[in-house]
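To fix ideas, we reproduce below one chain and its tokenised fold.
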Amino acid sequence: MFARHADPQTPHPRFDVFVDLPADLRLARKIQRKCLRDGFPLDVLLRNYLNHRRDAHERHIEPVRNDCDLVVDGAEDPHAALARQVWTGITSKELIHNS
């Protein structure tokens, strides 16, 4: 999200990808990563999600979807399939020549 607002020093091609993931899966993955793996307090994470993050996602992240070059399904597709979709999208726009 923040890279969309950065002004590069040199001109370059741009290809924006939106990874679509339902809110319940985003939250479950964050709990796994931050609480179960890293020991972050679950009550703090949930309070932050309910009081700030959920609304911020709707205000700042979801509107970007329509401006992206490609939207991929982060819930269903394995990482390799997502990478292929992105690479296909980049090469079809001729940002990188596939040789």
